[in-house]
User: Which sequence fits this backbone?
């Protein structure tokens, strides 16, 4: 049974159709990436999976269970954590408080403390800055915080939305290494990226989205070799 | 902060500030603020609040100039202040000269002979104008001189002046509370003049406060450090000791304050209660509610209807009716929150505004008049009584209100740091992310509105019993605006801020009756000044302080963030 199965979802913003029948699967332990241009529907797909948007048609299954009956906050309890685009940290709260908020729905103190340690091991910068106001962090640190905050929910499936956006190239590489590390520790990852080059290096499989529909799906290597992907997303001739 | 940018000294800017001071001083004269407050002496026979309005602009603009040109050299700065003061006085001199020939009073009613007399210090046109110019110039110079002083001199000086101003302003009230016998009377005669402080009293107050402030400046840090060095247990004992002492003081307050002042404090208390409720909705959860008065009204009308009043239907006592009043407000809060669950920001503000008006119009309507009295209101609401004794005097009701406020403070304080408080904070920061963190938005919003409404309902219920009668016009939009203003001025999201804001915006205007006419003007001006000079409020919450310090790299106080995950 796949970790996540998205079956033909149609999502609308008011009357505007953003997703026109998206289907995808993510197996346990995988890193799967969604690549595509601006406005292709990548973030909408993640928001629909997280329950923040409700599809007008189609279903989302988490380990075989239909998520349609659950509210967004309940889906977090099921083990799905979203790292939203543009970080969206709680800017007025400190780093420690932000992380605390990520573990909001949990009550196992020992487990929370353990996960906090793990987050600080993955992102040592955050440990140094734990009592700093999150709004004063640099862009890269905010991305770390946003990711660490999601980890504090101890998710089984992590939805990462454009983590490389606005990061210095050297940071991007570091960051993707950390993502792989998180994955190795047992978290399944669905990664949305514009930086197709990096995304296809860390992911095992990928989907290409265009105007709300899936154009292509293949292994990461397969996509990298695909002439159309090379031309449109990897900048090769 | 904005003031930190150093600009090169230039005369254009000085002239601009001078003109600004001139416009402010002239308009305060023309709208009557100077004249109205000329009788409110701070130092008997010498300085009145009118003088403060008259020369405040010169002083303030001089101060701003000196701050702005902090690197420009002392000589230039002082000269600049002098020029600003001079410029600010010129239109007043013109006013003095043309007032009578042109008979300005015909269309500017506040340009009265008394005002002209005040502007010329009673010395006739020529000499008086000269004195006016000199005084304004010197004050501009003093204003410019203040920032040049080292802070260990400046701070005590400012505190001293502020204390003299405040005590002088409230002299009448303090005398009222002082009592009339023995030693008290002797001291009173010595410190206070017929109106305001005596010169001796003013000097005394000034010296004492300057001394205290200087002492705190040199020793305060040491004392704080010593307290911080104490073992946590002792620190906690110290804190609880402080709180206990404060409560003890509150318990005996009516005995010092006497009837009139206790009445004022009672009104402040009702607003504190409402402020604490709105603070949960706006300050904690970040949902702007402009119809908050509706819950106050519902609490009051429920109380009126359930007790044996004119339109009473149940004949309950105050204490039995109180929970129902609170409950009715809570229910109304829940009903209101359902349509606004999906709304944010401006939309929420507009809908709640409409809700407040609907409630007011309903209680005013002829349609409901047979049951709730319509525009005639409801009379003969019985007093609060305890063990057969009716609480009629403000001193007695004070304890009911105090209990309500303490309860609300305690509940707010506990909730703020609890799980629910964190939910509200996340909601305020980013609704979508809060949801993605696993926070149930519906429940969180419902609880904020319900608890906020409960405090307002309690306040309304006490209000109804206190007055013994209620009228629809007591529940107009201005109440909502007042409550909102007081939490903004106090510091949004801050519990002590609510108390300070209520004392400031509700207590002070009641003590200064002359303000009544200018109340709205004062509110507007105060809010603008606050937002420019101290946007975090008078007593800001830690989170607000952090937000507004965010740009600076100033380290946070140690031990200030202990997240529950680390405990």
Assistant:
């Amino acid at each position: 049974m796949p970790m996540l199965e998205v079956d033909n979802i149609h999502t609308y913003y008011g009357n505007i159709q953003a997703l026109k029948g998206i289907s995808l699967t993510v197996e346990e332990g995988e890193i799967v990436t969604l690549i595509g241009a601006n406005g292709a529907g990548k973030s909408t797909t993640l928001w629909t999976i997280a329950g923040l948007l409700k599809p007008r048609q189609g279903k989302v299954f988490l380990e075989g269970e239909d998520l349609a009956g659950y509210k967004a906050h309940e889906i977090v309890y099921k083990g799905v954590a979203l790292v939203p685009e543009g970080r969206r940290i709680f800017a007025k709260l400190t780093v420690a408080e932000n992380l605390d908020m990520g573990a909001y729905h949990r009550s196992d103190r020992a487990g929370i403390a353990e996960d906090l340690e793990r987050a600080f091991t993955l992102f040592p910068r955050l440990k140094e800055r734990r009592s700093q106001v999150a709004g004063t962090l640099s862009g890269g640190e905010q991305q770390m915080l946003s990711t660490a905050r999601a980890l504090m929910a101890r998710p089984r499936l992590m939805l990462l939305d454009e983590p490389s956006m606005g990061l210095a190239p050297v940071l991007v590489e570091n960051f993707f290494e950390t993502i792989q590390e998180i994955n190795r520790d047992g978290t399944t990852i669905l990664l949305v990226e514009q930086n197709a080059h990096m995304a296809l290096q860390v992911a095992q499989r990928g989907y290409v989205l265009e105007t709300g529909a899936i154009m292509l799906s293949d292994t990461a290597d397969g996509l990298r070799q695909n002439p159309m992907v090379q031309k449109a997303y990897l900048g090769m001739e | 902060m904005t003031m930190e940018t150093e600009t090169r000294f230039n005369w254009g800017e000085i002239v601009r500030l001078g003109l600004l001071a001139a416009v402010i001083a002239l308009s305060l004269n023309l709208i009557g603020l100077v004249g109205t407050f000329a009788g409110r002496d701070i130092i008997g026979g010498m300085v009145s609040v009118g003088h403060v309005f008259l020369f405040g602009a010169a002083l303030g603009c001089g101060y701003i100039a000196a701050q702005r040109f902090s690197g420009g050299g002392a000589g230039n700065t002082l000269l600049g202040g002098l020029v600003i003061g001079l410029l600010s006085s010129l239109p007043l001199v013109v006013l003095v000269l043309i007032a009578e020939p042109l008979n300005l009073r015909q269309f500017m009613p506040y340009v009265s002979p008394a005002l002209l007399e005040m502007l010329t210090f009673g010395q006739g046109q020529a000499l008086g104008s000269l004195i006016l110019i000199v005084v304004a110039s010197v004050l501009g110079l003093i204003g410019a001189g203040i920032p040049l002083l080292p802070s260990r001199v400046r701070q005590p000086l400012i505190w001293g002046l502020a204390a003299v101003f405040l005590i002088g302003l409230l002299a009448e009230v303090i005398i009222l509370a002082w009592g009339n016998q023995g030693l008290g009377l002797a001291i009173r005669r010595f410190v206070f003049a017929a109106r305001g402080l005596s010169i001796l009293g003013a000097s005394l107050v000034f010296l004492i406060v300057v001394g205290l402030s200087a002492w705190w400046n040199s020793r305060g840090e040491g004392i704080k450090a010593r307290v911080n060095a104490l073992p946590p247990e002792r620190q906690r004992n110290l804190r609880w000791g402080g709180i206990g002492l404060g409560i003890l003081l509150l318990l005996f307050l009516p005995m010092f304050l006497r009837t009139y002042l206790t009445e004022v404090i009672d009104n402040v208390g009702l607003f504190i209660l409402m402020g604490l409720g709105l603070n949960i909705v706006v300050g904690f959860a970040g949902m702007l509610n402009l119809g908050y008065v509706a819950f106050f009204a519902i609490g009051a009308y429920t109380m009126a209807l359930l007790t044996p009043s004119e339109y009473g239907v149940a004949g309950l006592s105050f204490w039995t009716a109180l929970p129902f009043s609170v409950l009715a407000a809570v229910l109304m809060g829940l009903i209101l929150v359902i349509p606004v669950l999906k709304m944010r920001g401006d939309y929420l503000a507009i809908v709640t505004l409409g809700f407040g008006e609907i409630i007011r119009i309903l209680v005013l309507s002829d349609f409901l008049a047979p049951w709730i009295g319509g525009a005639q209101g409801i009379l003969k609401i019985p007093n609060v009584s305890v063990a057969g004794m009716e609480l009629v005097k403000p001193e007695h009701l004070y304890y009911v209100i105090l209990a309500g406020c303490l309860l609300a403070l305690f509940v707010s304080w506990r909730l703020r740091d609890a799980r629910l408080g964190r939910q509200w904070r996340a909601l305020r920061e980013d609704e979508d992310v809060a949801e993605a963190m696993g926070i149930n938005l519906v429940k969180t919003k419902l609880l904020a509105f319900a608890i906020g409404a409960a405090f307002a309902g309690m306040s309304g219920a006490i209000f109804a019993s206190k007055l013994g009668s209620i009228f629809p016009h007591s529940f107009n939009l201005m109440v909502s605006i007042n409550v909102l203003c007081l939490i903004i001025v106090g510091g949004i999201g801050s519990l002590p801020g609510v108390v300070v804001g209520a004392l400031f915006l509700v207590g002070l205007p009641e003590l200064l009756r002359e303000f009544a006419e200018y109340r709205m003007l004062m509110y507007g001006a105060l809010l603008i000044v606050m937002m420019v000079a101290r946007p975090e409020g008078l007593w800001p919450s830690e989170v607000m302080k952090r937000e507004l310090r965010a740009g600076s790299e100033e380290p946070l106080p140690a031990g200030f963030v202990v997240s529950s995950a680390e405990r």
